Amino acid sequence: MTLKLATSDGRSLRAEQKRSERREAIVRAAEIVFARRGFHDASISDVIDAAGISRGTFYLYFESKEALFVHLIERFVSFITDAMLVVDPTQPEPARRIFENVERVVDMAFDHPDLTQVVLRENRGRNPELDEQLDRLYEFLRVMVEGALKNGAQNGITRAVNEPVVATALIGAFKEVFLAHLAGASLRAADRATLAAALFELSVRGLFVGA
Amino acid sequence: MTLKLATSDGRSLRAEQKRSERREAIVRAAEIVFARRGFHDASISDVIDAAGISRGTFYLYFESKEALFVHLIERFVSFITDAMLVVDPTQPEPARRIFENVERVVDMAFDHPDLTQVVLRENRGRNPELDEQLDRLYEFLRVMVEGALKNGAQNGITRAVNEPVVATALIGAFKEVFLAHLAGASLRAADRATLAAALFELSVRGLFVGA
Amino acid sequence: MTLKLATSDGRSLRAEQKRSERREAIVRAAEIVFARRGFHDASISDVIDAAGISRGTFYLYFESKEALFVHLIERFVSFITDAMLVVDPTQPEPARRIFENVERVVDMAFDHPDLTQVVLRENRGRNPELDEQLDRLYEFLRVMVEGALKNGAQNGITRAVNEPVVATALIGAFKEVFLAHLAGASLRAADRATLAAALFELSVRGLFVGA
Amino acid sequence: MTLKLATSDGRSLRAEQKRSERREAIVRAAEIVFARRGFHDASISDVIDAAGISRGTFYLYFESKEALFVHLIERFVSFITDAMLVVDPTQPEPARRIFENVERVVDMAFDHPDLTQVVLRENRGRNPELDEQLDRLYEFLRVMVEGALKNGAQNGITRAVNEPVVATALIGAFKEVFLAHLAGASLRAADRATLAAALFELSVRGLFVGA
DNA sequence: GATGAATGAGGATTCATTCAT
DNA sequence: CATGAATGAATCCTCATTCAT
Q1: B198, C46, C65, D11 from C35: Cα distances, Å
Q2: C94 with C177, same domain?
Q3: Domain holding C116: CATH number?
Q4: Model pLDDT, residue D51
């Protein structure tokens, strides 16, 4: 039995790896397919064709179409979590730190355009399970941004604002700009620096001249 | 009865009115149903059940499900066009005029919550005809906001910014806030004044203290 | 009451005439519409649009779509009955009489192209009531042709043949030629004389040289 | 089991065969259903009920209802192509060869009564794609018959006739006789020999005594 | 593990006919 | 008589998921 376990370990390791690779292949295929046709419009057939697997195999790796989308959201969350670093107010040049955060978020959108498009494009209202996941995604983002706003206000960097509303607004601003660049026509040609600069300017300086 | 005989208009007028009323009833029912379940997830059955009409009657008033959605977009456009007034820079207190504009847009969202939710929630990618309509809606909004930005910059009211990006960002900011209030959980309790104030503050003053 | 009857007569006469005219208008419109789109593919809407009447009015003149078709069949039967004259074998030149019959039938098809097309195009299998009418039409034609064949055989003009089969075959020959001319592409340019001559030749002389 | 392991072909071969069998079962069911109710009047439900398969399965084997009909036409074409052999005029007894051709065509109609009925019954005017297929069928038949007529005339076997018209007429004659036997009431009891003899007689000898 | 044939609920749309005005 | 708004049964097709091989 120990032998069997040992062997089993060896085998399961290789098997585990192969399984992981295949899962990744499905995910990558799904990103492309969903980005092109939208999550709801794309069918499982589209995904398995792109991934080069059979119908049944898909369900060996993901419980359902929704489960695949949940995985994509989690993937997106992990990327954006990496991008949004907490700004330490005791460090010098907080504005620069914030700008670097904006840059990293923009970078993430440019580095994972399909994933970003797929996740940001999707809205609530289609599937309760999915809605919950999206709620959690936006809740997560809002909490992070709200935290930054509170932190900034406490340390005298940012003005006191209605944090929930402003956090939501900022998320919407970034989201719309990313989608206009990735999926739409209007900002398709924009580059990272331009988007980052414009988003930073609007966020921190606002529109008024004297303000 | 004399009146009834007086004009054959009498009959067609009443008929016209009844037709108009019924069409309105369908539209209202659709707004509610689509707001609750999303346009694509809601079926014609849901709409006709809510409107209390039969299957065939629906197609007497709208050519298709898509045509109904197009009508909702047009309705939304007409409301938002009424709300967004061009700010005359020669008038005193331009900031106040802009704030009033923000207020009116917020009012529109509060006055037509279902319609706003339905239209703002929908994304491109399901139906080419519908995508085009949505493109036109956002193009329209962007052009209006870009125009305001250019106008403000020329008259020394607002700072010079990357207008396409900032316009897109502002639209996204308002959109996300409205959806969070109407469809989501986070801003459900917010009132008009709060949202208007927060959106105005972010837009025109930005976040920085000194800025 | 007598007075009322008198008046009623006067009125009903005019009314009767108007009714008759309107019925004719519907029938003519139906011929054109059914010829263009086929009976089953054409809708009542198509007919009433072409006739310039309202939906309900149609049902004042015809009980149903099928009843209208039955009327067209009857109209066709009356025309073809006029065309197919019994050939008196005691008269000289029976071949010439037969040829004149063929000519008259061809003339009928050319004089009422829409009606001919509509009636000949339709096949059994869609509607029991309609099937019965078509059965009666073809039964009627077959009986006439069979009669002619028997008559000809008895009088030594035509050869003895399997009358039911040959009658059916002749009907099919004429029908296919008319449809190819009226609805199809292959014989569209053919003229009356050509069709009449070819049909006569085949029918009476057959194909063989010596025969 | 060794066999099973021997070739991976084994599985795909059996699968291929099963697929083929099922497709055949659908086709046979469709022939019966369409013969009974007509192609347009029969619904997919009728076909799948008769074939004992589910709704979705049908679409695994045929792209659409029309595609199924196209398949039936092709099937019919292949049968009739086999039946109509080109008569070599250098061979003795050309009349006998022609008669054998007629016999083979009649045999085909008797051997595939449902298919023959379905294909011959259908008329143009319902579906553009389908119309084209029917046009091609009749074009094909006409070309074959016209060729035979020209061939016969050149070799002094048949008389010179207006080939397009006579070919059309002959097709109509056979068609009507087959339908009267298969779908109608009048020739239901007729046997192969009778129909073949009568059709041959009419075609080659015509009706006139002396002729 | 991998496969892909089979499933069947669900959706948008059409159209002959009725009937209140 | 004439109208035309209202009806609702009926139809074709899609696609996420299952399961025997």
Answers
A1: 68, 12, 15, 54
A2: yes
A3: 1.10.357.10
A4: 94
Q: What is the pLDDT of residues A43-70, one digit of tens each?
A: 999 999 999 999 999 999 999 999 999 9
Mean pLDDT of B135-143: 93
Task: Express each pLDDT in D92-110 by its tens digit.
Answer: 787 888 899 999 999 999 9
Phi, psi for B201 (deg, rounded to 5): -60, -50
In this structure, are residues D93 and D191 in contact, taking their beta carbons and an 8 Å threshold?
no
Indicate the helix (H) or strand (E) that contains C45: helix C44-51
Tokens at C108, concatenated: 């009928």
Contact C205 D211 (CB under 8 A): yes
Q: Using CB atoms, list chains with 3+ pairs below 8 Å to chain A.
A: B
Given the structure tokens 């700072």, which residue do they identify? Answer: B159
Q: Is A207 helix (H, G, I), strand (E, B) or coil?
A: coil
Residue D189: Cβ within 10 Å count? 9
**Predicted structure pTM score:** 0.86
Angstroms from C96 CA to nearest CA on chain D: 12
Q: How far is CA B63 from CA B20, B72, D132, in A?
A: 16, 14, 30
> What CATH code is carried by the domain that includes residue B38?
1.10.10.60
Which residues, at least 6 apart from A30, have a Cβ–Cβ distance to it below 8 Å? A47, A50, A51, A68, A72
**Residues 6 or more apart whose Cβ sits within 8 Å of residue A105:** A80, A83, A84, A174
In this structure, is the CB of residue A64 within 7 Å of any atom belonging to strand F?
Answer: yes
Distance from residue D154 (CA) to nucleotide F13 (C1'), in Å? 53
Q: Please tell me the total count of domains within chain C.
A: 2
Q: Which of A170, A179, A176 is nearest to A143 (CA)?
A: A170
Q: Which amino acid is at A170?
A: L
∠ Cα A40 A174 A71 (to 5°): 40
Residue D126 pLDDT level (bands cut at 50, 70, 90): confident
Pair (A137, A69) in one structural domain: yes
CA of D173: which chain C residue's CA is closest? Answer: C169
Closest nucleotide (C1' vs CA) to B58 is F6
**DSSP secondary-structure letter at A201?**
H
Domain that includes residue B41, residue range: 8-62
Return the DSSP state at A208.
B
DSSP B98-113: HHHHHHHHHHHHHHSH
